[in-house]
């Protein structure tokens, strides 16, 4: 489900669960965390990307809807998801997201956690939490506040609007927007041209810039979303989604 390849001085980590638009289930995110713990040891920058027109569509709601206890499923998924986010943040090499398409829910954390963010022109960003009665996870509450500010972040949560790549760039969520066909090549070229930086220096710089204290924020997110997932609103929204998407 996770593919890794060396490409022109960078390591490309690709999310490959396209039949579900790279939607998150525990096994998928656990494999991502494991792969992230392995890459970067050779000093190569890491580029994380998705498949075709999907970067990551968030939690797999079909999977959650199949469980007798969806709230427990949310708890398991969030634990694995946060492990992957921390693995990404602990890499001792520069990280770049090449955001090729749809980003929703928990996918926001994976898209925004890297040091540098490049999106294809057709990429879109949706919070998608409130329509399920859930709170943000995957560090997205911190990453959104850091990149676009509280006002825009709350707008995304309240409206569930689909933010275009152009708007995301204008708001400060992204560093660059490029043509879809040029995305991965551009991201790899950018990564391979970065000057070498000592791992300690990079880690400490991330921590100095981390005004939200991400580890603490992830703990707060975990408690909040597990509590919300036990609510009747979440179960009703999940049942409605499954009924509307029988295939």
Shape: globular
Count of distinct strands: 10
Widest sheet: strand ordering = 1-2-3-5-7-10
Following the backbone from N to C, one meets helices and strands in this order, namely EEHEEHHEEHEEHEHEHHHH
Oligomer: single chain
| Relative strand content | 15-25%
Q: How far from one another are the termini?
A: 21 Å
Tally of helical segments: 10
Just name the CATH architecture: Alpha-Beta Complex
The helix content is 40-55%
Rg (CA only): 17 Å
Structural class: alpha/beta
Q: How many domain regions? A: 1
Mind telling me the CATH class? Alpha Beta
Mean pLDDT: 95
Outline the low-pLDDT stretches: none
CATH superfamily membership, which one?
2-enoyl-CoA Hydratase, Chain A, domain 1
Please describe what this structure looks like.
With 247 residues, the protein is an alpha/beta fold. It has a single domain, classed as 2-enoyl-CoA Hydratase, Chain A, domain 1 (Alpha-Beta Complex), CATH 3.90.226. Helix content is 49%, strand content 16%. The chain contains ten helices and ten strands. It has helices at residues 26-38, 61-65, 70-89, 107-112, 140-159, 165-171, 183-193, 199-209, 214-229, 232-244; strands at residues 2-7, 10-15, 46-49, 54-56, 95-99, 102-104, 116-120, 124-126, 163-164, 176-178. The strands form two sheets. A six-stranded mixed beta sheet has the order 1-2-3-5-7-10, with helices on both faces. A four-stranded mixed beta sheet has the order 4-6-8-9. A hairpin with a 2-residue loop joins strand 1 and strand 2 (10-15). Helix 1 packs parallel to helix 3 and helix 3 runs antiparallel to helix 9 (214-229). The longest helix is centred in the first third of the chain and has 20 residues, at 70-89. 45% of the residues are buried. The model has no long low-confidence stretch (mean pLDDT 95).
